[in-house]
């Protein structure tokens, strides 16, 4: 088995606040992972460390057999929750911008995906709706030829059609030699897509494993398990 | 397609394909959707669909032609067997349900007849 991410006793502190506590996780090639938990549970911090945008305070992290560096950044396509595309650009300029930033960006693929996403190449980014902007973000991220794809809250606050299109895009574009990590708290939207799930709470992994196994053992949907796990919140 | 939590998703998808074969929605020799197409259509993980095809193949209900896709078997005997097998499962479920109502075999038969005649 080939693990593309391996973290051992990973810890992250912001001043005196502990954002991540003793995280031990492995992410295997060819699988889609769900990173679940309420706001503030550490999902984004963990993804940012994987993307080498943050450094852990202690513990070890290996990305594709290497220590995180500018080199491993090239293996990771990370979609943050923020709007990272300039509003003054046209959609087609944003493709050029991404192609300049990332050598692995496949512009042809992005153009094709934008058709599926029903986004007009000549529209200004600032004039796109929230749903369209989310669809553009995911198109740009997935059109990179990376090994690890991380999508931070790809479905949050979107209309049903955008959610549906994004889900189809995730399934269709999933690369069997890569890893996909999706953070969300909209569990029922996505539970059939996830091979494995990691539940985070206050910076700790409180439950992790195969989705199907968990569902069968508890006789509950992932969403019900989620409610059970975070019932106190 | 809606999924329940008491059976693995791959088995639920297998059952759906089997029932499509029996009802004739899928005919012998028909080509099935590709892994990716079916995953997108059902909005499930491609690995789940891959497992579905693997299991259907090991049950000899489907076969794969390299580079061409997965097809429904053309073997009549296998298809007849599949129908018998599913009928058996359905009957077992039904009988178990009736027995849980404390009904004996005779009574179940009588109820079945009455139902068929619209007298139940």
User: Under CATH, the topology of the largest domain in chain B is which?
Assistant: Arc Repressor Mutant, subunit A
Helix- and strand-based class of chain A?
alpha/beta
Unreliable stretches of chain A (pLDDT < 50, length at least 5) are none
Strand order of the largest sheet of chain B: 1-2
- Strand segment count of chain B: 2
- Count structural domains of chain A: 1
Helix and strand run of chain A: EEEHEHEHHHEHEHEEHH
Supply the key terms.
heterodimer, A: 233 residues, alpha/beta, Rossmann fold, 6-stranded mixed sheet, 3-stranded antiparallel sheet, globular, B: 120 residues, mainly alpha, Arc Repressor Mutant, subunit A, 2 domains, two-stranded antiparallel sheet, elongated
Topology:
The complex is a heterodimer of chains A (233) and B (120).
Chain A: E1 3-14, E2 17-28, E3 31-36, H1 43-50, E4 58-63, H2 70-73, E5 76-79, H3 91-101, H4 107-116, H5 130-142, E6 148-152, H6 160-173, E7 179-184, H7 187-190, E8 196-201, E9 204-210, H8 211-218, H9 222-229
Parallel strand pairs in A: 3-7, 3-8, 5-6, 6-7
Antiparallel strand pairs in A: 1-2, 1-4, 8-9
Chain B: H1 9-22, H2 35-42, H3 46-58, E1 62-65, E2 69-72, H4 76-99, H5 105-116
Helix pairs in contact in B: 1-3, 1-4, 2-3
